[in-house]
Amino acid sequence: MRILFITSTRLGDAVLSTGLLDVLLARYPQARFTIACGPVAAGLFEAMPRRERTIVVTKRKYDLHWLALWRACVGTRWDLCVDLRGSAVTLFLAARRRAIMRGGRRQGARIVHLGQVLRLSPPPLPVMWTGAADRARAAAMLPDGPVWLALAPTANWAGKVWPADHFIALARALQDRWPGMRPVILYGPGETERRMAAPVLAALPDAVDAGGGLTLAQVAAVLARCGGFVGNDSGLMHLSAAVGTPTLGLFGPSRMSEYGPVGRCARGIAAPGPEGSAPIAGLAVAPVVEAAVGLMERAPVTADLAGAGG
């Protein structure tokens, strides 16, 4: 049995879609999977069980990337095509069944819309697959002993970025509460991301710099070793929630009702004001500290923190 799964170009959306794949893996234990996604998201699927191949869909002028995808898939007879991009590609492929996510902006959580594609209610939680080598590298970077706090102070546009001095104050407040805690600073590849993270790294000399050079599976393994995560609305936030790390997402002008983190222990906190237009700088440090403490103390994986603070 062969399944074609077309998911997002954006990392966060692709992470949210992994729960559907997890359901399909369990429902069809003999199936082999082809994943079609954008280049940023491709690394999510490297360790996925029964993945036959990944087709990287790179945007081209005149929507010619869809033609390229059709050419890569037309020679296969598919048992199921799942298209989360709402494209016409699967309509022109030989397929026994199709599940297509229709376009248009909808109200409510994105994860719910994804679940509706396979008529799943409640929708499945996102997952992340890692290999033994990924986990070994993460263990070498973050050895047992300290409580590791993941901070993600970057995002793909400036309006989503909580000020660097707020992240620094948050880290110091949490370290005052839990003296054994050490920050782990995560950010994406490229000079722009590195510059956004630089002030936080400079102010926290005991922090581990985990940005820029890791694969997505390695990042996921690093996040899985952390006792908590606080970060901007980003793909890293969704990845943290998917691995089960207690995750607090920070929201300003982006829509928390649509893209809040989804996981076993995850929540968002938004700047005061109308959703979709509130400046993220208006989100004060104190409520973020309070939310992070509450989230981490309630999480089973960090239950030992409850008695460790002042």
From TrEMBL:
The keyword Cell membrane is annotated on this UniProt entry: no
Ranges in coiled-coil conformation: none
GO annotations of cellular component type: cytosol
Gene Ontology terms for molecular function: ADP-heptose-lipopolysaccharide heptosyltransferase activity
GO BP annotations, alphabetical order: lipopolysaccharide core region biosynthetic process
Pfam family, one: Glyco_transf_9
Keyword terms: Glycosyltransferase, Transferase
PANTHER family named in the record: TETRAACYLDISACCHARIDE 4'-KINASE-RELATED (PTHR30160)
Name of the featured protein: ADP-heptose:LPS heptosyltransferase
Species for this entry: Gluconacetobacter liquefaciens (Acetobacter liquefaciens)
